[in-house]
Amino acid sequence: MPIVVDIDVMLAKRKLSVGELAERVGITPANLAVLKNGRAKAVRFTTLAALCDVLECQPGDLLRWEAGGADTGG
Fold this sequence. Notes:
The protein is mostly helical. It has helices at residues 7-14, 18-25, 29-36, 45-55, 59-62, and strands spanning 3-5, 63-65.
């Protein structure tokens, strides 16, 4: 998938753990891990908005397109 998720970068900048972010956003740590590790097939705009609110960032800080990204299929 040519979409790269940079949640881990923002977590480090904000000094937050996955568990703390998940709690503040209102999703499970497991679902956040799926998104963070690039295994998610979709993300709801409400979840993206909540992530941006908690991390005080823009959607482009969390998601980027990378040409030639590997497609994992499925």
